[in-house]
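Sorry to interrupt, but I need a hand with the structure work. Go ahead and set the record down below:
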Amino acid sequence: MSVGSKLSELMEARQTNANQLSQLTGVSVNTIYSIVRRDNTKVDLSVLQALSSALGVTLDYFADAPHPQPYLNPHEQALLESYRASDMRLAVDKLLGIE
């Protein structure tokens, strides 16, 4: 999967768009749209660093290796595991910081 496809999926997963991402990163909206629309396979490293940092993934997320899901930070992973275990009270407590 190319960088453009991964970026598109990641923006959808993070519920953000090119305009918001541009404001967070300083990368122009046109550059972001170009990466996605052209489904680029090669992107300037400084652009990729800014995008990955803003979206909470490591640079290797955009590598050619397949990634079944976006990277989750430890807090997000704990919430997901709680949800999957059907312990919604625990998930809500973790979300609110009550442990």
